[in-house]
Amino acid sequence: MKLHHNLIGLSLLLAFGSSHAAETIRVAIGTQDTTINCATGGLLIRELGLLEKFLPREGKYKDVKYDIQWKNFTSGAPLTNEMVAGKLDIGAMADFPGSFNGAAHAKAGKKSIFINVLSGSTTGSGNGIVVPKVSNVQSLAELKGKTISVPFASTAHGMLLRAVKAQGWDPERDVNITTQAPEVAGSALQGNKVEAHADFVPFAELFPHRGYARKIFDGSQAKAPTLHGSLVDAAYASRYPEVVVAYQRAALEADRLIAAEPEKYSELIARVTGIEAEVNYLFHGPLGLQTRDFSWKPEYRQAVKTSIETLRLLKRTDSDIDADSFVNDSYIRAAYKQAGLDYDGQLKNYAKLPLKAKDAVTGKPIADFRRLTQIWIQGEPLVRHYASAGAAFAELRKLEKSGKKVRTVYAHDQDSGLKLLAGDAWFVVNGKEISAFLLKADADAYASRTKGKVVDYDTLKSGQSA
Question: Which of 2, 76, 317, 344 places its Cα 20 to 30 Å from the Cα of 182?
Fold first, then answer.
């Protein structure tokens, strides 16, 4: 009898112990490493082990064990499939795939929410249209009747449709829009097998940087705000709100790090993705092509609404999700508060990441960035900054003559302030004053007004532009 009672006591103890065993909470995050403006919501958090620093370990999380899982995707659609299937809890993607994510969850009787912006442009920079390097096309207006490929249902697709409409064209009759993934488009551009290609971050800059394409249109010309951000399964967020806030804290820390040392972390992104650091810096460096901005500005909320409407027009979804409840800023607000940051202040801040630098020639602080030109030299950890293109190109000639290898040169569009890869820019020379432009038509117009001379990068670099 005594043995029987002991066995009963042991079984009760085991049962009690098992019911109070430490809970294991899965944190499964889908990333898009090659979509480099998602870096602060995925790649950098993973590579630097930042999530572990912020996961809650007090209160109901005191004895919790975390099962952190990472999975990388090249686009948003397969990531969404795994979120809907319950294999992922959090994912990073653009406004169009993000809206499709919300629609796919709704169709499955579930709900996802857009919890923060990671990086974007309130004017639309990041999306762009390129042509093969050998093409004579200089503007979108010259593509009437031509074939333009684009990843269907992507944020670049939405930009292209808006740009075509702004030309007064019928997208069904005046252009032939075909679907093409970025990895296929690269080969097509190299082989001159496509007349033009529209794409999202970073491909409209990556293809030109690699030397087989030329950018002729920037998304900001379509005035269509664009963003990449993070989504979470709503049920998961409701069950583990502190975990979701911890993810946001990790993203904010990743942002702080890359803001402080953009070259260093551009190199890290390059090592992981194979996308050159020069392109990463173009986006993530000071005065970059896009702005890392976690706040839900009205323009970003509108971008989500537009993407939902466009996807419906494209018959990619018949779901009628409510954009106002789909976007949820409560978690990022909580993360800002925990980090001692001002979310409402950030909502009002439209400035790009500032540049605090001295001119590499004069040593004087740079205050006027209209003609800022930057040179990244092979073997040097930091980008060199010059207040004027004239000084930069004079220095560039000296550097190359001395045997230095130039990784890339950056310039800024005189009209828009858009950061450019100088190798494909157009320049107007007025004596010692040199102004950069993305589009030849803009350079021609400026030259006509100022009686300047339009030259390309190679001519300017050679010193034969006078």
Answer: 317
Q: The domain that contains 175 carries what CATH number? A: 3.40.190.10
pLDDT digits 0-9 by tens, 321-365:
899 999 999 999 999 999 999 999 999 999 999 999 999 999 999
Same domain, 235 and 378: no
Report pLDDT digits (tens) over 46-77.
999 999 999 999 999 999 999 999 999 999 99
CA distance 114 to 203: 24
Residue 316 has pLDDT above 70, yes or no: no
DSSP 102: H
Element (DSSP H or E) covering residue 113: strand 112-121
User: Could you tell me if 241 and 133 lie in one domain?
Assistant: no
Is residue 364 included in any domain, yes or no? no
Beta bridge partners of 273: none
User: Which candidate, 224, 203, 221, 202, places its Cα nearest to that of 212?
Assistant: 203
SS3 content of the chain, % helix, strand, coil (to 5): 45, 20, 35
- 297 φ, ψ to 5°? -65, 155
Q: CA-CA distance, 409 to 91, in Å (whole number)?
A: 34
All residues at 6 or more sequence positions from 382 whose CB lies less than 8 Å from its CB, including other chains: 263
38: left (phi over 0), alpha (psi -120 to 50) or beta: alpha
Alpha helices in 232-359 (DSSP H): 234-239, 241-260, 262-273, 277-284, 298-313, 323-326, 330-339, 343-347
> For residues 195 and 143, is the Cβ–Cβ distance under 8 A?
yes
Exposure of 393 in the CB half-sphere (CA atoms within 13 A): 25
What pTM value is reported for the model? Answer: 0.93
**What residue numbers bound the domain in which 14 lies?**
8-120+227-347
